[in-house]
Amino acid sequence: MTAALQTVTTFWYHRCVAGESSDFELATRVTAGGDQGRAAERAICERFAARVRLFGCRHLRDPADVDDLVQDVLLHVLGALRSGRVEEPQHLGSYVLGVSHNKVREARRRTSRVAPEPPPEASQLPALPEVRLGRLEDCMSTLAARERTVLRMTFCEGARAPIIGEVLGMSADHVRVARQRALRTLRGCLENPKIVIAR
């Protein structure tokens, strides 16, 4: 992986990790219960449903199994939070991933279907100029929301184009086009320091 791609990966890593505090707040509200707890449960489902679906799409062949996985994982996580069985709520994302792993193993034992996908071909993506992380974040803010999601799923979650398309309702070809367009836009922004980005 080039230094520029490593910079993009680092950017999305920090963006993902930065959300852990919010995960902790939501987790503690669910445990506390009440109206805020119910609102937090909805927020957790909205936050993690796509990630669990992505994980399921990478490891299960049957779309019905993926649907079941999303439901089973979220029900398990919410049940554990309500009863205070999540020992490290500040690492809720890791807990959800661990539950997803366990549920996939259970599904594989039931169906004997195994279909893991290799990691994305990040080394084949065009390189970006090396820049400060702050400038990269500014340039990221100029992208459309869908393009930012495509880059996040590529560099942060390790998703391939077909899986990103499954989550976003796009074809794999359209995902690749969106990714290339986003990277070209970033390159133009990063290579032209005269571009002033409104905050």
Would you write up a description of this structure?
By secondary structure, this protein is mainly α. The chain folds into 2 domains: 3-14 and 123-191, Arc Repressor Mutant, subunit A (Orthogonal Bundle); 18-111, RNA polymerase sigma factor, region 2, helix turn helix motif (Rna Polymerase Sigma Factor, Chain: A, Orthogonal Bundle). The chain is 71% helix and 0% strand. It has 9 helices and no strands. It has helices at residues 3-18, 20-32, 34-59, 63-82, 92-111, 133-140, 145-155, 161-168, 172-191. Helix 3 (34-59) packs antiparallel against helix 4, helix 3 (34-59) packs across helix 5 and helix 3 packs antiparallel against helix 8 (161-168). It is globular. It starts with a helix and ends in an 8-residue tail after the last helix. Mean pLDDT is 76; it is low at 1-6, 17-21 and 119-126.
CATH superfamily of the largest domain: RNA polymerase sigma factor, region 2, helix turn helix motif
CATH fold name of the largest domain, please? Rna Polymerase Sigma Factor, Chain: A
Number of domains: 2
What is the number of helices? 9
Enumerate the spans where pLDDT stays under 50 for 5 or more consecutive residues. Answer: 1-6, 17-21, 119-126
Arithmetic mean pLDDT? 76
Helix-and-strand structural type: mainly alpha
Number of strands: 0
Cα radius of gyration in angstroms: 18 Å
Q: From the coordinates shown, what is the CATH architecture of the largest domain?
A: Orthogonal Bundle
Question: What does the largest sheet look like?
Answer: none
Order of helices and strands: HHHHHHHHH
Shape: globular
- Cα distance spanning the termini: 31 Å
> What CATH first level of the largest domain would be assigned?
Mainly Alpha
Strand content: under 5%
As a percent range, the share of helical residues equals over 70%
